[in-house]
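Lab channel / #folding
Pinned by the channel admin:
"Please post every new chain as: sequence first, then the structure tokens as a reply. Keep commentary short and put observations after the output so the thread stays searchable."

First post following the new format, from NK:
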Amino acid sequence: MSAVAAASWKRRRLGERLGRYVLGSVIGAGGAAAVYMARLDGPRGFERLLALKIVHEHLLEDSGFVEMFLDEANLAVRLAHPNIVHAYELAHQGELLFLSMEYLQGKPLSRVYARAFERGAPLPYELVAFIGARAA
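Reply from TO:
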């Protein structure tokens, strides 16, 4: 992956419009996609905060990856559970492919784990059991 491709998600600007959505700040990013806070604008002042998962542009040339992302999106919109983020829409604009999802405020589990690791203390068994039970 080139440095230009790897940093392409960083070029998105606060306030940039992507279809019906207005991009906010980056929530997180990985090797396949970046997730942004976004706002859905509707008629008469209607708006909704959500998350947009935008596939990195360089991966759109990989048909196998695109097929996998489409499978993920199709599965995600069929899942309905209080402990699973809801997926709303799969869309594209120009060459960009993205998935709109429910935005949940809170700390990612990876950050909780990293904090425990920094302190040299494992996560309490009760917390691990609670998270596991909610995920199941």
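NK: The longest strand covers residues 21-29.
TO: also worth noting, The chain has a mean pLDDT of 85.
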